Amino acid sequence: MVTQVKQVTQVTQQSVLSLAKQGDPDAIATLINQVVSKKGLTAIAKTKGNCLHIVLVADRVPNQASCVRFVYDGIARLNPKYIDSVRIYGRRTDQKWPTWTELLELQQPDSTSTTSPTVPLSPTADPHPKHKPVKIKTKYRKKIPLLLLGSICWVLVAAVGFVVRAKMDSQAPTTPQPATPAQEQALETSAKLQPLPKTNQKIGTVPPPPIKSPLSSPAANKPAANTSPKLPSLPIKTQPQPSVQPNSVAAPIQNLPAIPTTEPPSINAATTITIKAVGDIVPGSNFPNNRLPSNVKQLFQNVKPYLQGADILFGNFESTLTNYPRTSKDTSRAMVHAFRNPPTYANLLKETGFDVLSVANNHSFDFSTVGFADTMKNIQNAGMTPVGKKNQIAYMNVKNIRIGFIAFSHLPLHNSVNDIASAKALVLEAKKNADVVVISFHAGAEGTGAMHVKNRQENFYGENRGNVLLFSRTMIDNGADLVLGHGPHVARAMELYKGKLIAYSLGNFVGYKSLSTWGALGQSLILEVQVNPEGDFVSGRIIPVQLDRRGIPYPDKQFRSVHLIRNLTKIDFPNTPLKIDSNGKISKLGVRD
C-alpha cells in the first residue's frame, strides 16, 4: 500500500513537472510552494502573453535579492515553453501593492540547436558534460543565504518526489544562514545541472547577490559619456511589459507565519519611469482632397528607432480617425482646416510604438461628435489609450506605479486650460488615485512669432488660447508631476518648477502636406524624461528631429531644436534649475521652487 502511494505521488509530481515545462503557471507555483512554504512564503503565478508573473507573499516583505535568485535559478533550469520573461513581485500579506518588483528577460535557446536545456531526473541521467558557469564581477558582495540552495533544487523536487523534498527541507534552518563555499560547491557537484542559459536582466531596485551565473553585470550596461554632440544611441527594442496589478492574480493570502528577512529600502527606491513624448501629429488627410502618402510607413520610419525604449510613448494626434463624410467646419474660410485619416491609421500609430495619444486639440471635432467618438474608439481598439474627453482621467500601471493622464485644450469641448477651477479639481482627483500625474495641454498662440512663454493670456485669431504658464504651474501646485505642452507648432522653452518638468511646447512632429515646416516650424524633438515614483524629475534628453518639406521627420544631426530650446529656456526662465547641454541632455542643477 505504501509503495502504491509513493508511486501515485511520483506520477503526480511528474505531471506537475510536465505541466510546468509547458509554462503552466499553476504548476510552476506548485513547484515553488513545495520549497518556500516552510519559510512562510506563498507563491502565486499567472501568465499574461509571454510573461510569467510570480507574486511572493508573506507576513513580512520577502527579501528581494534572495527571492530573485531563487526564482531565476529554478526558471532557468525548468526552461518553460512560451515564457520570454518573468516579473517577480514581493508583497506583504496585509498590503494591496507589492513593495518591490523585478523583471528578468529570458534569452530563448538557439533555434538551430538540436538540444534544449532540461532538468535531469537524476545525476546519472545527464548526458552532457558539466560546464563551469561564468563568474561575473559586481560591486555587491553579500553572501548567499542558505535559502537560495532551494532555488537550485526546486525543479528536482518535483521530479524525484517528496523524499528529496523532505531531505531538502530538513537541511534548511528556520533562520537563513550564509552558505559556505564548500556547501555551494558540494550541492552544485551533486546536482550536476546544466549551466544556466544567458539572460538579459532588467534590474529593479536591489541587484541580486553575485553568484556563479551568466547574469550580465550592471556596470557593463552603463553608457559611456558623450564628449561631442551626437544623436543618442538607439534603444534596444524589447518585448512590451504587460501591465498587471498583482492583487488581480489571486486573493491575498492571510495568516502566513513570519519569515526572517531584511526589509528593503523605500518602495521602488531606484525605479524610474521613462516617458517619451512628441508634439503634433497630422499624418496627411483625405479631406477635402487626398493628401495621404502612398506608403504610410514612410511617415515614421526615419525616427521609429528613436521612439522605442520608453515605458510610455505619448503624442498629440491632431487629426481624426473616421470615415464620417461631413465636416463641422467651414473650410471655405481662410486658415480653417479639417483633417481626416482612415481608421486604419490607428494601427500605424500602434506599430510605431505609441501608448497614449491626446485628442484634446482644435481638430478632434473636425467631423463633429461622430468623428470624435470614432477617433477615440479606433485608438482604443488598436491597443492604445486615448485621452482628451471632457472630465476624463486615463490610468495605467507601469512598473507597479500608477500613472494618470489628463489632456486639456483651450476649447470648452475638452477639459479647458481657461477653466482653472475645474482643472484643479481634476488633477486633485487624479492624485488621489495615481502615484504620478501627467498633464497634456494644447494651447498658446501659434507660429514663430509665439515662441516665447509669457505669464499672460495668449490670443490667436480671436481665440483665447490661455495663459499656459499660469495653467502649468497651477497644475503642479495641485499635484501634477509632468506637463507636456503642444499647440504653437513650434518648440518652446522648458522649466523645472518645484522639482517637476514643464515642456511648454513640443512643436510639430508629423505634418504630411498639412503643416508648415518653414524655419523653426520644422525643428522638432522627441522628449525623453525620467521621473521617480513620486513624479519628481530625474533626468531627460532632447532627441533632435527635423521635418522635411513634406512634413516627414528625420533625425537632425545639426541639433537645431536643441540649440533652439536651450536659448529659449535661458531667455524665458533664466533662473530655472535646469541645464540643457549641447547633446540635448537635460539635468537639474538643484532643488528650487
UniProtKB/TrEMBL annotation:
Residues 193-203, 224-247 have a biased composition (Polar residues). It comes from the Bacteria. Keywords: Membrane, Transmembrane, Transmembrane helix. Residues 109-124 have a biased composition (Low complexity). Residues 274-513 form the Capsule synthesis protein CapA domain. The chain crosses the membrane at residues 144-164. Pfam families: PGA_cap (PF09587). The keyword Endoplasmic reticulum does not apply. InterPro entries: Capsule_synth_CapA, CW_Biosynth-Accessory, Metallo-depent_PP-like. Coiled coil: none annotated. Residues 107-134, 193-247 are annotated as: Disordered. Belongs to the CapA family. This is CapA family protein. It comes from Aerosakkonema funiforme FACHB-1375.
